[in-house]
Amino acid sequence: MTTFDDRERAFENMFANDQELQFRIQARRNRLLGEWAAVKMGLTPEETDAYAKAVVQADFEEAGDEDVIRKLVGDMTSAGIDIDEAGVRAALDEQAVIARRMFIEAQ
User: Which Pfam families does this one have (predicted)?
Assistant: First the structure.
């Protein structure tokens, strides 16, 4: 029975590690997305840093990416940037690839 218990613990640890890695990649993606949007809005470096953190925090409002997309579309539209949800989703996908690559290269 201990062999089965050991395998079960190993799978649980692997699952926990995978979930943590996905969380980190998603947080990095959101930060990169915030920096991308800040550049488009012409924010200063200090404002860019604060905005990127705000985008990361926005992701905790609800499950999924809708909260982040809604925030960026609203903020960028308010700043006079002509962008729609599809444009933000495309940027989100691009930043996800970059974030994943950053974690792979770091390992």
Answer: ATPaseInh_sub_z
Answer for the pair 73, 91: CB distance below 8 angstroms, yes or no. Answer: no
Q: What is the pTM of this model?
A: 0.84
Q: Give the number of residues written for the chain.
A: 107
Amino acid in the structure at residue 12: E
Check if CATH label 3.30.450.40 holds for domain 2-106. Answer: no
Read out DSSP for the chain? -HHHHHHHHHHHHHHHHHHHHHHHHHHHHHHHHHHHHHHHHT--HHHHHHHHHHHHHHTTSSSSSHHHHHHHHHHHHHTT----HHHHHHHHHHHHHHHHHHHHHH-
